Amino acid sequence: MTTIPTNRHTDIEWRNESTQKPPKQALFIDRANADMLLQYARNNTAVVWQGDFHNAKQILAALKKRIRKPAAQAPQADIQTAFHRHRLQQAQQSRLINMLAVEIGAGFTLNLPRAPDVSAALADVYGLPNETPFLLPLNQLLGFIGAHEWHKKGVNIPALGGRIHVPFGVFSPLRGEYLELLMQAPLPRHYRTAFDIGTGSGVLAALLARRGVSTVIGTDTNPRAINCAEANLTRLGLSQQVRIEHTDLFPAGCADLIVCNPPWLPAKPTSAIEAALYDPDHAMLKSFLNGVAAHLNPGGEAWLVISDLAEHLHLRHADFLQQCFQTASLTVIDVLHTKPVHQKAAAPKDPLSFARNQETTHLYRLKPKK
Description:
This protein has 12 helices and 15 strands. Helix 4 (119-126) packs across helix 5. It folds into 2 domains: 3-150, no CATH class; 155-368, Rossmann fold, CATH 3.40.50.150. It has helices at 34-42, 53-67, 79-97, 119-126, 138-153, 177-184, 203-210, 223-235, 283-292, 309-312, 320-327, 353-356, and strands at residues 3-5, 11-14, 25-29, 45-49, 100-104, 134-137, 155-157, 162-164, 193-197, 215-220, 242-246, 255-260, 296-307, 330-338, 361-368. Residues 180-328 form the Methyltransferase small domain.
């Protein structure tokens, strides 16, 4: 737990889902403007808003407008540098934005005029209610509220005949193209067992069960993901077919089919949720490929679902995956591919649009070399 000094002459806990260092101090105030908040933020001082909640949201919007400036199109000659510059700029902007905070009272209460009931949204993130107050960046609180609404609504997955419900901190299957690849890949009728490595929401494990695999084990190390996956499988009536284990990569034993959708970009995550997107030096990908053959039954396959966005960002060479397959003594028996349809792929103002509009998502069917 991290505590910081305040102008109330008492220390108070500071919570932040990102890896950012806490501010050096916090000031409780009920009147301010965006310029004042920006000055405090640049001095590593957080402002804890004590006034009207809707006014705080307006000031936050003004603060973001001052901080976020349109990024120039990345030069094609130095794409990798452009990507890392973009990530650094995002981190710097996020730190300044997160300096506007609110105090969360005992029992996840927010005692500000016109404030909504935030207890359910905070319980989604933290579990049991708090007994002592803590400070939370307003931008993160709004993110928690939005995530809670998405959690309740869920994401419709036609192939499942139902919805996947995802709380804050778990990667959501909004990008449906990789799910379609899993449904299109030929599945031998005699495959009865499967592992889903890094199951997250449990959506891939559920799809394998729907396709007729009688026993599926999903693994993950994120407690939020494990709880999320188990809840989704129960809701879909698949908890008898699918079991979730708190395990790093492979469970004990072997399976006919092993599926993995690892993080696609080799960069350092700045928050827990980013661990589903960024994996330094492709550590999980390499560990999966190097270990998968030992966990396959004779005649079994490994399915790797991965995008080539990292190649278009010059974060890995075009032959990187083939080298990984060779090192792991794996043979590619088929490749399925599709183009993304998510909003960023067609957003010209996105600073990485030059790479996103070239992206292709692949499903590699792999077998151990004989």
